[in-house]
Amino acid sequence: MAVPIITGAGLGDLSREVSESVGRRAYQFYESRGHEHGQDLADWLRAESELTGLREQITPSADEVRIEIPLDELPGTELQVGVDRSHVVVTARTAPDGEPEQTPHAGSIRAAKRIDLPVEIDPSRAEATSDGRTLEVVLPRAGAS
């Protein structure tokens, strides 16, 4: 199944939303400690670690960069892939009732990952697909035909 590719201003919105999700989770840690101050960095890093736990395999070739991410921990999520020339942002969302939403940016972000690429790519030719077990992103190199 094809996974939506987000580029341009939409990628900035997606990155900002990921950051806000980390902030909300960090605040939950702060609340769970009874609003004890002085642990904000630790809360942020813990939240970021929870949210960015996706494991990726990056395989560069002469013409493209291929990224594979196992989805074993994320059944029933809506995937989105944001792409620019030098990095990729992947998000997996789950609606409050556990069912994937059809509306982009619906539901809460359950996992996210920013991946810095080893080479520049052409975002306009990026493709992403998922079989439910693995997300595969194919990113043609900039200037490759």
* SSE order: EHHEEEEEEE
Structure class: alpha+beta
What is the total number of structural domains? 1
The appropriate CATH architecture is Sandwich
Shape: elongated
Number of helices: 2
What is the CA-atom radius of gyration, in angstroms?
Answer: 16 Å
The CATH topology label is Immunoglobulin-like
CATH class identity: Mainly Beta
Low-confidence stretches: 98-106
Query: What number is the mean pLDDT?
Result: 85
Q: How much of the polypeptide forms β-strand, as a percent range? A: 25-35%
Would you count the extended β strands for me? 8
Strand order of the largest sheet: 1-4-5-6
Distance between the termini: 25 Å
The residue fraction in helices comes out at 10-25%
For the biggest sheet, the summary is: 4 strands, mixed
Structural features, described:
The protein has a single domain, classed as Immunoglobulin-like, CATH 2.60.40.790. Helices cover 25% and strands 32% of the residues. The protein is built from two helices and eight strands. The strands form two sheets. A four-stranded mixed β-sheet has the order 1-4-5-6, covered by helices on one side. α1 (9-32) packs across α2. It is elongated, with a radius of gyration of 16 Å. The two termini are 25 Å apart.
Describe the secondary-structure layout.
Layout: E1 5-6, H1 9-32, H2 40-51, E2 57-60, E3 64-70, E4 78-83, E5 87-94, E6 108-116, E7 127-130, E8 134-140
Helix pairs in contact: 1-2
What is the gist of this entry?
With 145 residues, this protein is an alpha+beta fold. The chain is built from two helices and eight strands.
